[in-house]
């Protein structure tokens, strides 16, 4: 009786899965420690980092919306635990599948994400491999969206560290998912599989755990202290406790070995078209507006006379201001909801309905009356992200930005989010007020 009781209390321990580790300075990718880092091993649920990376990519590029209702297949519903408990035939918003895969590491949710994006898990695995190649993960082969053991489904500590760095820097607005101790997944509240490390290690804010008998206890962890950011990866831990202890040691090592001052060199974001489709495949991007929460007025003589005059023919090539009422209505609703929740953040706005992309913008404004200054509130990876930041900022800082013009300007480094048509004093005041709210801002002089 005593022996049986002791066995029941013994922690779950893997059967001597191979060990590998990697530590990098996340700011520039410098390797600070490695051991068996290029040995191909079973990644287990670290795989879901790639599933989620592709989901973020798809949402950002208009391929799918966070509010898209995904129909659950028999295949997804039949996945073994860990799982959300999805039922074949039910429909659930993509946002909840993403939360369940990121926080609970739900296998059924991961499979459903893959099927929603590519039609089948096999097709999604091919997309995972194209994306892995584009990210430089040269020793990784994916066979499924969840990471359960399958012949040929292999990766390395180096490749998973690379993937973790891309998740952090390529889609920072979604990264907060990985630090949530718990979250609503639509049909239930789920707890984070990494909550012990998040609670125990100062500065830890992600990223992903994994366990199978073949893999052992795996973890890609990221932590930030001061101006330093370190990512540590472990394959083949013997238990949750020993794995977490080893990761904490590696993170400590990383903070000790990394330089105090390092220039941030973010990884290059892979070309979307190159990862989403093989040669000859046509992409159908979901950009059409099917519903409008607010009617858009047709251009009539009366409405044209009511339109704001921003420049005359002598001083502007274009005087058409975007009619973005639908977008602004959605963002205002999001802000009101966020105020009620007490969490007005860009990340919370990410979970609101996706507005229609590509509004028209003013290409040149009048410099009459000294209103030829502007401000910049950041550079973003997509036009949509830049436009949403402009709307959010305009609503948050109406006192100084009312009447300014929102413009997204694309260059070789990304999409610049600008407010134009301000006086120098107003531009300076707006920037000071935004910086006080921890919003990046700098003034733009007349060009």
Could you explain how this protein is built, in words?
This protein has 447 residues and is an alpha+beta fold. Helix content is 37%, strand content 18%. The chain contains 16 helices and 13 strands. The strands form 4 sheets. Strands 2-1-9-8-7 form a 5-stranded antiparallel sheet, sandwiched between helices. A 4-stranded antiparallel sheet has the order 11-12-10-13, with helices on one face. Mean pLDDT is 81; it is low at 1-14, 285-330 and 336-369.
Alpha carbon gyration radius: 24 Å
Number of strands: 13
For the largest beta-sheet, the strand count, sense and barrel status come to: 5 strands, antiparallel
Given as residue ranges, the uncertain stretches (5+ residues, pLDDT < 50) are 1-14, 285-330, 336-369
Main sheet: strand order: 2-1-9-8-7
Distance between the termini: 84 Å
- The ordered H/E elements are HEEHEHEHHHHEEHEEEHHHHHEHHEEHE
Number of helices: 16
> What would the principal axes of the Cα set say about the shape?
globular
Quaternary state reads single chain
Helix and strand composition category: alpha+beta
Average pLDDT reading: 81
Helix content: 25-40%
Strand content: 15-25%
